[in-house]
Specification:
The chain contains 25 helices and 2 strands. The protein is an all-alpha fold. The protein has a domain at 31-192. The protein has a two-stranded antiparallel ribbon with strand order 1-2. The chain is globular, with a radius of gyration of 25 Å.
């Protein structure tokens, strides 16, 4: 027991802080003064950073301060680019601190630094994006009047976002989501203090509903990681097992890893629901990370009496669709439901804004990799996805998309199994981290999955060409039949 506690001391402290953050949520929500509420959230956030990081708390505080100054001092036209490179440059330094004579920080401090990067870079892109959008909107209004329906989707930015230096600091260090996410926009943070939604949302019920599965996730993680430990995959005993055992071992490793992520993300979401952050009326068609996607300006004008009558959700703060992660058929869909808040950030900051269209996906994946870290495992895991997707998309269009009934279920199960196996194989690299450790395991199974990928891809291309070659013949046949009918 004591050995277990000593070995997992940092994780236990981290878990305890997350639970404490959930508990204080209702008290934080009840603070009426906006200024006092912002100050209390920031002080508690800084306190969490110091408890988790000790002297290394200087890293997230210094990096955030530098990023905030860049946002305010650099022209709005370029502040997002300067802030991006500054924050990621500091992230490199932070992770290579031992090369400069400084001690390396703990994994928990690394998580906080990662969240700080998302927030500071994200708000810089909000400032720039809103400036561009408002300027474009003014120009289009001068040219012609556009009539929009109430059901039309909102533009990405509807108002100018220009927070003060003080508000940027409050946003960066507010305790909600600081330990492990989820990421949320500055707009969501600002709405929390100025709109009445958190008063009338069922924060307690949503928190209980979110928390109820956490004990199961933690129990499964502890059981799976104890019975099938990660380090066993590198032992000679493992290598002497039969091939099927070695092939399937990553399934339990990735299953344990998922339970750990589910428990952490679910607790993080509970911190948000407990405090009321991210509560919006359901009519806004709220999306993770973004918030309302329809009628946002109308929602902002809502009176207290109207707000009392509305139904609310916390989809803005939803990071993990656990059932989706376990059940979706394709890797493409799996990527959409895994860590959705970070996916939104990558899409908003990198994918949509990267200037070279053909390189958008590569830029997004590369930034995702370096945000996680420099280890080879992150490249093996994340950068392998597009190669699997190429083959998967072919089979999806050829056999699954138009299938129905039992045929669709059987094909769906096969695709689910292949998707799950691919994720587990990639997940092993993510967990093993370093190239030498990854090579030991992949060599023990003869790097078989890459061979299967290549075979599937080649077969898929051949089948796709064969399928396309048959289509014109059918069309030609129909035309000939019609012509003969007309002659008759």
């Amino acid at each position: 027991m004591w050995t277990f506690l000593a070995k997992n001391k940092n994780d236990i402290i981290y878990l305890s802080l997350l639970l404490f953050s959930v508990v204080i949520g209702p008290y934080y929500r009840s603070i009426n003064s906006i200024r006092a509420k912002k100050l209390a959230g920031t002080i508690f956030g800084l306190l969490l950073v110091v408890i988790v990081s000790g002297y290394n708390a200087a890293h997230p505080i210094l990096s955030a301060s530098l990023g905030i100054l860049a946002i305010k001092l650099v022209s709005v036209k370029y502040c997002h680019v300067v802030t991006f490179f500054l924050m990621f440059g500091y992230l490199f330094f932070f992770r290579l601190a031992d090369k400069f004579g400084f001690p390396l920080s703990s994994g928990q401090t690394n998580l906080i630094e990662m969240i700080i990067v998302l927030r500071v870079v994200g708000v810089a892109f909000e400032v720039n994006g809103s400036w561009l959008a408002v300027g474009k909107s003014k120009k289009s209004k001068e040219d012609k009047v556009e009539i929009k329906k109430e059901t039309d989707k909102d533009d990405e930015f509807l108002e100018l976002i220009n927070p003060s230096l003080e508000d940027l600091f409050h946003y960066s260090f507010n305790y909600i989501g600081l330990l492990t996410g989820p990421y949320y926009r500055y707009r969501t943070f600002d709405d929390y203090f100025h709109l009445p939604f958190s008063k009338y949302a069922d924060c307690f019920g949503s928190t209980i509903n979110t928390l109820k599965m956490v004990p199961l996730y933690i129990t499964l993680y502890l059981a799976l990681s104890h019975i099938w430990p990660l380090e066993y995959i590198l032992t000679e005993e493992h290598n002497n097992r039969n091939f099927l055992y070695r092939m399937m071992y990553p399934w339990v490793l990735f299953a344990a890893f998922r339970q750990r992520i589910y428990s952490g993300m679910t607790l993080a979401e509970s911190v948000c629901t407990s405090s009321g952050l991210g509560a919006y009326p359901v009519e806004g068609k709220n999306r993770t990370g973004h918030g309302p996607t329809i009628g946002y300006l109308k929602l902002k004008q809502m009176s207290e009496e109207e707000a009392k009558q509305k139904q609310y959700d916390f989809k803005t703060m939803e990071s993990m669709d656990v059932w989706g992660c376990e059940s979706v058929v394709t890797l493409r869909d799996s990527m959409k439901v895994w860590n959705k808040a970070v996916q939104y950030w990558v899409a908003m900051v990198v994918y949509k804004r990267f200037p070279v269209k053909i390189l958008k996906i590569h830029a997004a994946l590369f930034v995702s990799v370096i945000w996680h870290g420099f280890h080879a495992g992150y490249f093996f895991c994340i950068y392998a996805c597009p190669f699997y997707l190429i083959a998967e998309d072919i089979y999806y269009k050829l056999y699954y998309k138009e299938a129905t009934g039992l045929k669709k279920k059987i094909i769906g199960f096969v695709m689910w199994f292949l998707r799950s196996h691919s994720e587990s194989y990639q997940g092993a690299a993510f967990l093993l981290l370093t190239f030498d450790r990854i090579w030991i395991y992949y060599s023990s199974v003869y790097h078989y999955w890459y061979g299967i990928w290549l075979a599937f891809l080649i077969l898929g291309i051949v089948l796709n060409k064969f399928h396309k070659a048959r289509k014109p013949k059918k069309a030609d046949g129909k035309i000939e039949n019609k012509q003969s009918e007309m002659k008759q």
